[in-house]
Write a structure and sequence with these properties.
This protein is an alpha/beta fold and 418 residues long. Helices cover 40% and strands 20% of the residues. The chain is built from 14 helices and 23 strands.
Length: 418
């Protein structure tokens, strides 16, 4: 490693000061009241419950009634009318009984349709050969084929395609003057319908000792976050991981994966992923649901195999991606929709230009991104690094010196000096 690169790295660590701008960010978002501030694991638990909830819609005696099994769910009369009562007036004619969207049993690529209906909270569907509100091969086939091609090319759904599917449903219901009733994306929290989600993620590359101060700040503004810990990293070990995971302020632990790096030891990426995940689970005594790939000081930890490895290793979600999307989604793995979900991290502190105005820029870009996600009613995962919450605080703790010096001496041996 060249001396100039080392100097740049130290400069970045010294100038990136996250604590004060992060508090300003939390204060701003908390004041808006209708943004749910939770860890990725908490949000994904909600998302799974929502996808698997019961939604029953019944029409009788001039009323349309919605029932859902999901606690704290919000029923929306599309677009944008959130119902306090599950019953609304029905002025149509020619229909009574339960409202079922029927997916034609012969519909090709119907798994894509089901995935998008679940995303939209339109859960009153079934698969059959006939029905009053039939989504047939002739009607849906070309649209699903187009969505299938885009998904394989770009790795995500497109909002215009989601809207097209939703519009087909709206048109079907409109024949009988029925409204589209669905389960809103987010829950009602403390009596307030939440319009978007803010979810911090802390990538703990080195400064695990900085976490406590940051979590005090997050608790002040009632936000939970996810700690991504390295299972076998050089800067902290099993004792520090246990300490971080067992304190009351630890919301959730996920894995900061180093599959490529550790594949040399365990044989391949999958075995490395299973070893890392298993090691953390044994240390903390609870399941590891999430993963994001560590960029790595010595190796880049994402490969063409990583997407499949994440699924086969049993992770629920992966926050490595930075593509443009606002909701959890399943990627295509070996031609099929994955079991695991992708959660996009929309912004990271390390992507903010280092300058004298770093704090102000960090704040402004984060709030601008929050506004963008809010307009889409999505989830905003913010990537943070504990070392930037106090580089000197990390450096001045004697317990950090030995692993830091040991790593640095090995690191520079692999680099050339000028």
């Amino acid at each position: 490693m060249k001396l100039r690169q080392i100097t740049r790295s130290i400069t970045r660590h010294v100038m990136m000061k996250n604590y004060r701008p992060y508090e300003k960010i939390l204060r701003h978002i908390r004041a808006r009241r209708d943004i749910w501030m939770v860890s990725q694991g908490e949000y994904m638990a909600w998302w799974l419950k929502r996808e698997n909830a019961i939604l029953e819609i019944t029409v009788s005696d001039g009323t349309c009634r919605a029932y859902t099994s999901l606690e704290n769910a919000v029923i929306e009369r599309f677009p944008g009318e959130f119902l306090d009562s599950p019953t609304i007036a029905y002025q149509g004619s020619g229909f009574s009984g339960e409202v079922w969207l029927t997916i034609d049993s012969e519909l090709e690529k119907r798994e894509l349709l089901i995935e998008l209906l679940k995303r939209e909270g339109i859960l009153n569907f079934r698969i059959a050969e006939e029905g009053k509100f039939l989504l047939s091969q002739a009607e849906m086939g070309p649209l699903l084929e187009d969505i299938h091609i885009k998904l394989h090319q770009r790795g995500r759904f497109f909002e215009e395609d989601v809207s097209a599917v939703r519009q087909v449903v709206i048109n079907k219901l409109a024949v009988y003057n029925l409204p589209l009733l669905r389960i809103w994306y987010h829950p009602r929290v403390d009596g307030i319908v939440t319009k978007a989600v803010f979810s911090p993620r802390h990538d703990v590359d080195r400064a695990i000792t900085n976490l406590a101060r940051t979590r005090v700040l997050e608790k002040k503004y009632s936000v939970s976050s996810t700690l991504y810990l390295r299972a076998f990293g050089p800067f902290y070990g099993d004792q520090e991981i246990r300490e971080a995971a067992t304190v009351p302020w630890c919301s959730e632990v996920a894995l900061h994966g180093e599959f490529v790096t550790n594949a040399h030891k365990y044989g391949n990426e999958l075995k490395a992923a299973e070893a890392e995940k298993g090691h953390l689970e044994r240390l903390i005594g609870r399941p590891i649901l999430g993963v994001c790939m560590h960029g790595g000081e010595l190796a880049f930890n994402t490969s063409e195999s990583t997407r499949g490895v994440v699924q086969r290793a049993g992770f629920l979600y992966d926050t490595t991606s930075r593509m443009q999307y606002y909701f959890p989604f399943k990627q295509v793995v070996n031609g099929q929709l994955s079991k695991s979900y992708c959660l996009v991290h929309a912004l990271g502190d390390i992507k903010i230009p280092v300058s004298r105005n770093y704090g102000r820029t960090f704040y402004e870009k984060t709030i601008a991104k929050m506004d963008e996600v809010y307009e889409q009613n999505g989830i905003f995962v913010l990537m943070l690094h504990p070392v930037y919450f106090g580089f000197w605080a990390y450096l001045f703790k004697p317990r950090n010196w030995v692993p830091l010096l040991r790593f640095f001496s090995g690191y520079v041996r692999q680099r050339s000096w000028c």
